[in-house]
């Protein structure tokens, strides 16, 4: 069987696709990957030595008027799909999935979708009627699709992360691959005022590449504070982590749940359909998380939520045990193959 996995844009789309692809490969299927030529997937797949083909696909307003060339790129993609003779196309979300999904449909290649968020994205909603199956990360997502169309599998997590046994003592701050401006600024104020140090945890602060230089210039070096622009090997970070302050992207939430790491979730407020808030609310149900939205008095509310988490960590059995995530990659591969 020959499978194409389409994954690009941010780590939230790329890493689940990569995790799924490796599982499918282990089952003796041939897997290729596709994405854009100019975003982070091109370098990530190269680093992992995975077969990848990039295409010039752009969002409106990105790289000037290059978006106008997407129509021509679509026909290039369709010809390539037909030439390669794929048996299945799996789209892991993001705007590029629209072009590959439509090309697969017109080429009569079975189409499968990964939906990481509680609230399905616009591309998923458009392509779902034409898909053989939609694999969803949250049980709450099933209601958005016909019963026979969707399967609740969880979100694929890289095996390197699934194999981690977190025994660290650090607070890890996760802003996502692109960073989180308001979160970084709030944490910076905590650091400058001594509040962050008062929590008495070593801090691993992943700022995102966009904010790294600004944050690094604004803080004074001290023992126990480690700034990182971005990390592609999160298993190393999680191994040192006791709790987190994090954005509420679906992929990082799947990793936190798999490793049973509690913390404070800060949804990105400008996500389409406010899907990170829905993700965070779904995670909060078992009591291991606090959700803090940006807005008025954000820094104060964030500090209070962090205090609640640390208070819980200091007590025996503070949080409800989180069920270990099922191996989503295995479930999807089983349904596919």
Number of helices: 14
User: Which radius of gyration do the C-alpha atoms yield?
Assistant: 20 Å
CATH superfamily of the largest domain: Glycogen Phosphorylase B
Model regions low in confidence, pLDDT < 50 over at least 5 residues: none
Mean of pLDDT: 92
Envelope shape: globular
**Domain count:** 2
CATH classification class of the largest domain = Alpha Beta
Main sheet specs: 7 strands, parallel
Spatial ordering of strands, largest sheet: 3-2-1-4-5-6-7
- Helix content, binned percent: 25-40%
The quaternary organization reads as single chain
Alpha-beta content class: alpha/beta
What is the straight-line distance between the termini? 8 Å
Measured by DSSP, the beta-strand proportion falls in: 15-25%
Task: Explain what you see.
The protein is α/β, with parallel strands linked by helices and 337 residues long. It folds into 2 domains: 2-152, 3-Layer(aba) Sandwich (Rossmann fold); 160-313, Rossmann fold (3-Layer(aba) Sandwich), CATH 3.40.50.2000. It contains 14 helices and 13 strands. The strands form 2 sheets. A 7-stranded parallel sheet has the order 3-2-1-4-5-6-7, with helices on both faces. A 6-stranded parallel sheet has the order 10-9-8-11-12-13, with helices on both faces. Helix 11 links the parallel strand 11 and strand 12 (263-265). The longest helix is centred in the first third of the chain and has 16 residues, at 11-26. The radius of gyration is 20 Å and the shape is globular. The mean pLDDT is 92.
């Amino acid at each position: 069987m020959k499978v194409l996995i389409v994954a690009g844009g941010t780590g939230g789309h790329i890493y689940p696709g990569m995790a799924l692809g490796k599982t499918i490969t282990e089952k003796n299927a041939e897997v290729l990957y596709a994405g854009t030529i100019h975003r982070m997937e091109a370098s990530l797949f190269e680093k992992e030595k995975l077969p990848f083909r990039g295409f010039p696909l752009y969002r409106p307003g990105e790289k000037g008027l290059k978006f106008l060339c997407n129509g021509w790129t679509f026909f290039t993609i369709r010809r390539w799909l037909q030439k390669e003779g794929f048996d299945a196309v799996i789209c892991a979300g993001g705007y590029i999935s629209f072009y590959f999904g439509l090309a697969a449909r017109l080429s009569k290649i079975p189409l499968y979708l990964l939906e990481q968020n509680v609230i399905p994205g616009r591309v998923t909603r458009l392509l779902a009627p034409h898909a053989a199956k939609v694999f969803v990360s949250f049980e709450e997502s099933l209601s958005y699709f016909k019963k026979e169309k969707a399967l609740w599998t969880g979100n694929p997590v890289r095996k390197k992360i699934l194999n981690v046994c977190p025994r660290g003592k650090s607070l890890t701050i996760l802003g996502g691959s692109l960073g989180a401006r308001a979160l970084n600024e709030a944490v910076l104020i905590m650091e400058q005022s001594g509040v962050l140090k008062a929590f008495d945890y070593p801090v691993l602060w992943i700022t995102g590449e966009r904010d790294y230089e600004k944050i690094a210039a604004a803080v004074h070096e001290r023992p126990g504070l480690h700034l990182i622009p971005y990390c592609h090997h999160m298993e190393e970070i999680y191994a040192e982590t006791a709790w987190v302050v994090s954005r509420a992207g679906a992929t990082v939430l799947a990793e936190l749940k798999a490793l049973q790491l509690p913390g404070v979730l800060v949804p990105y407020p400008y996500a389409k359909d406010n899907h990170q808030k829905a993700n965070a609310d779904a995670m909060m149900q078992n009591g291991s998380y606090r959700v803090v939205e940006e807005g008025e008095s954000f820094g104060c509310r964030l500090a209070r939520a962090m205090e609640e988490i640390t208070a819980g960590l200091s007590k025996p059995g503070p949080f409800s045990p989180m069920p270990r995530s099922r191996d989503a990659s295995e479930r999807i591969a089983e349904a596919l193959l």
